[in-house]
Amino acid sequence: MSVATGVTADPYLPGHGDPSYTVRHYDLDLDYALESNSLKGRAQLTIEALQPIRQLTLDLHALNVVKVTGPAVGRHNHRAGRLNIQLRQELSPGELTTITVAYRGVPRTVPDKIGDAGWEELTDGVIVASQPGGAPSWFPCNDRPDAKSTYRLTVTVANDYLVVAGGERTGMRRRAGRTTWTYEQRSPMATYLATVQIGRYDEIPLPGPVPLTAAVPPARRTAFEVAFADQAAMVDFFSRCFGPYPFDSYRVVITDDALEIPLEAGGLSIFGSNLLSRSWDAQRLIAHELAHQWFGNAVTLRQLHDIWLHEGFACYSEWLWSEEIGGPTADARAREHWSRLIGRRFTRTLADPGIAQVFDDWVYKRGALTLHAIRRAIGDGPFFELLQTWVARNRGGNVTTAEFVALAAELGHLQVEAIVDTWVYERALPALA
């Protein structure tokens, strides 16, 4: 039997994802007109059945479906952001097929209980910030964090705009006033990590232990060079802490607009011009988004309730960087933030913060405090061995809190289970020994 079209994959993202299949590869061909904010797209999806299916559902928000084709495709309908496709014959578990969707329209952010996300116009350009459920704003997808895929993306825009996306740039062709940019992301990643950034940017190569580049508005270049002077050192430091950088390259994009928060995507991070500063608040966020390349992008949660496995690890990376550059130690940062949380009455656990609180600051800080408690209990050498093994074993995959505890036990750190029980699964804030 096939999955019912009303079933979704993650209770924190109702109306997204179909657990009956996964997408192995997305081949996306986009043509975008900035003056009218209109998008034409063609998406070919290589899908694999995870159970016997006669129908499946794709997520596509606000855009109009022109045509759906494929060797197994029958009838389809598109309602309320869900493209339901009947198949001509049943697919068996492990069986592959392709589905091609032609679509067009004006992309809009996807409204969810957690918050709007997806394709947005800038003053002069585009930002795609899809976490957690914005990917359907610009391509048809199986929008769930545990369905990781490779990508090929071509984007055609006017000649005077630079297109930046995740993965490696494999082509750039100019003709008739327009340029087609091609990127390939060979490292599997979740749909919310796929991105397109379009703007009048200068592309700046940076020295570093891996290929580093930045897309920066020309007038912001000097401020960028001051604010991001430590970018290469950060990559080197986190590589020593967590293991080799997990993607082929790293890019940062600086929008001319101010942004409320920075955002990570697969192999790149996006910052507003308001973060071009040497202040700690700016520098910690530069470190935070970089750390997500290990924790969140390479190693990705299965469901959003385990968000501390992303945000707690990235927040703790801020404290590690503070210690590395001679600022307050991670222990001092931990005590500072513990003292701010101790008076709080927690209504949810870190293991299940709820839709309304999943990206609240307490989740980030309590997650980081959990890691600090583990570090203090097992010592620096074993702690960083644990993190490096965690990344090495799970790169390109999906994880749970239980799997993190199991790995710690395998490495001989049986006390980690009790620490996680009190910090992650109980409401009351534990003492910071």
From TrEMBL:
| Alphabetical keyword list | Aminopeptidase, Hydrolase, Metal-binding, Metalloprotease, Protease, Zinc
Reaction it catalyzes: Release of an N-terminal amino acid, Xaa-|-Yaa- from a peptide, amide or arylamide. Xaa is preferably Ala, but may be most amino acids including Pro (slow action). When a terminal hydrophobic residue is followed by a prolyl residue, the two may be released as an intact Xaa-Pro dipeptide
Record-level Gene Ontology MF annotations: alanyl aminopeptidase activity; metalloaminopeptidase activity; peptide binding; zinc ion binding
**Quick one: a GO cellular component term?**
membrane
Q: Which residues form the Aminopeptidase N-like N-terminal domain?
A: 24-193
**The keyword Cell inner membrane is annotated on this UniProt entry:** no
User: What does the record list as GO biological process?
Assistant: peptide catabolic process; proteolysis
Q: Which cofactor does it need?
A: Zn(2+)
* Residues annotated as domain Peptidase M1 membrane alanine aminopeptidase: 231-423
- InterPro entries for the chain: Aminopeptidase_N-like_N (IPR045357), Aminopeptidase_N-like_N_sf (IPR042097), Peptidase_M1 (IPR001930), Peptidase_M1_aminopeptidases (IPR050344), Peptidase_M1_dom (IPR014782), Peptidase_M4/M1_CTD_sf (IPR027268)
Q: What EC number(s) does the entry state?
A: 3.4.11.2
Query: What family is it from?
Result: Belongs to the peptidase M1 family.
| Name of this chain's protein | Aminopeptidase N
This protein's species is Flexivirga aerilata
Query: What broad taxonomic lineage does this protein's source fall under?
Result: Bacteria, Bacillati, Actinomycetota, Actinomycetes, Micrococcales
